[in-house]
Predict the structure.
Amino acid sequence: MTDIIIVHSKYGDATNHWYEWLANNLILEGYKVTLFNIPVEDRENLETWIKSMEEQIQVRTYETYFVTHGYGTLAALKYIEKTAMDKIEGLFSISGFKEDAHGIDENIELDVTIDYEQVKDKVEHFYGLCAVDDKYVNYQETKRLMDTLGGSCKITSHGGHFLESDGFYTFNALQMKMQSIMSK
């Protein structure tokens, strides 16, 4: 059985956008899903994200995929780097970015460094999704992250930041793509 770990963005929590919808659908399909959630008051400091991840997430098998969104990608990458774990199968990043990103929301603090070679040693495959019309994360930053990680990146013309305000209460395309990749 494949494990899925969903990590929300900085301005959302596990109950908004498409996170719960995706978790519920994947559970119905037979996947084991962990829906990470961090309280609003703890979101300013990346170290607090990592501490919460250490409390909530347990990587138990190679057949594990992270699904991350925005700042949640940065947090998940740092968690993967710091955590003693065996190699996992993959990471899906929705509008993710590196810690030295430009063209992202100016309210995002990027006081962190990530050893991308160490992350690549622990994750087999990386997949990115971004949109040209994203007003929070420039699509080129997601592409640059995937290039750094040796992953592939799908760039769409529309989708924004894949938020409820962009019409993303559900995310059928993501679920179908994930399941096609995970069933190989």
About this structure: Residues 71-82 form the longest helix (12 residues). The beta strands are 3-7, 32-35, 64-69, 88-94, 123-131, 152-156. The CA atoms of residues 89 and 105 lie 30 Å apart. The longest strand covers residues 123-131.
